[in-house]
Amino acid sequence: MEDYWDLLSGGVDAITPIPASRWDGDSYYDPDPETPGRMRMRYGAFVDGVDEFDPYFFGISPREASRMDPQQRLFLEVAWEALDRAGLSRERLAGTSTGVFVGVNSADYLQLQVADPSWADTYTITGGTNSLIANRLSYLLDLNGPS
To answer: Does the structure show a pLDDT above 70 at 131?
Structure first.
């Protein structure tokens, strides 16, 4: 959370060239936007460490966590940290009518998984469905409000 605040308060531009660990940007680049199967961008905003999620902390199996969209993993981590900093414990919130509302964009991770049906399993849909992100936190904390 401090890193994000440092970016905001420092006016830092976090747009970077595509990291080689993500994909080979040069092999997909073409300046012509009409070229099929190519992209005309060489830069983006990338979040490091999405593979460092601790599923056991959230009561999730590693297999299920591997199918979870990084948006779900990051949301659980950031929401937990925000509640912790606010002094709101799991015990204090459990059973309350607290609501959880989340804005989510895209379902790229799900599309990647269903592109190869042999890789899909029980957790593919729940891990890739955006409407379940708020529900994950509600379930984790036993919140009974709208989600």
So the answer is: yes
